Amino acid sequence: MRQQRTQRSLVAARAATIRAPTDLPTNGYALIVDGHAKREFKTQEAAIPVAKNLKTRFPNLQIKIYDAEAKRVEQIEIELAPA
Q1: What is the C-alpha separation between 83 and 80, in angstroms, rounded?
Q2: What residue numbers bound the domain in which 80 lies?
Q3: What's the structural domain count of the chain?
Q4: In a domain? residue 6
Q5: In terms of domain of life, where is this protein from (predicted)?
Q6: 75 is a domain residue
Q7: For residues 83 and 69, what is the distance between their CA atoms, to the nearest angstrom?
Q8: Which of 11, 22, 61, 65 has its CA 20 to 30 A from that of 77?
């Protein structure tokens, strides 16, 4: 009985460490929310307003724009209004 419990916990630990591959585009731009690619755009001008709107509505989310050609990530931040 004790061996079965140990085997189950090992299987659960291995399953937790396996990550699914990220599906980042090879061209264009991607909206990344908390580490997950959510939407693709053809231009940066289309991606940035969507990202800023999302960050304004949900300031605790980590939002980034991924540039597939340059393979760079841009963190989206908003300025908080003074109280």
Answers
A1: 9
A2: 22-83
A3: 1
A4: no
A5: Bacteria
A6: yes
A7: 40
A8: 22
